Amino acid sequence: MAKTSANPSVYSFSARTLNGETISLERYRGRPMLIVNTASECGFTPQYAGLQTLHQQYAARGLEVLGFPCNQFGKQEPGDAQQIGSFCERNFGVSFQLFEKIDVKGPNAHPLFRFLTHAAPGLLGFEKIKWNFTKFLVDRDGRVVKRYAPGTKPEAIVDDIEALL
């Protein structure tokens, strides 16, 4: 999945969408991204609404919101790709890009999340993701700018997003 590069960026990775299409994050070159591990049965699940609002407010200015469902935290994303997509659209009107369910920690962690957590460690320098809805803000050059805790609501990072647009 990852290409070898002297200056790795998120553009070095690809992932499969909910409909099974493999896309390279190169597709988003030159656009800031908010990359989030998501879940449908989590106390933070209502953040889908805030993520959709960010998508609606800033997509025309370049922001890409990318959701990566994960079932590693309390088994809070039990559905398959079709169920996840239907849930997100029906309950939150999600129209930003959602990807297939992945692991974001441990030996089977998706290479993108290994990169993100290494580039932007959490509290006390720990690289591990501790829960659903951890967010990573990436600049136009594919560099991780900031990591946000699961409890940080999407609307609370508007100023950081504005700075990248």
TrEMBL record:
One of its GO terms (biological process) is cellular response to oxidative stress. GO terms for molecular function: peroxidase activity. Residues 4-165 form the Thioredoxin domain. CDD domains: GSH_Peroxidase. The active site is at C42. Belongs to the glutathione peroxidase family. This is Glutathione peroxidase.
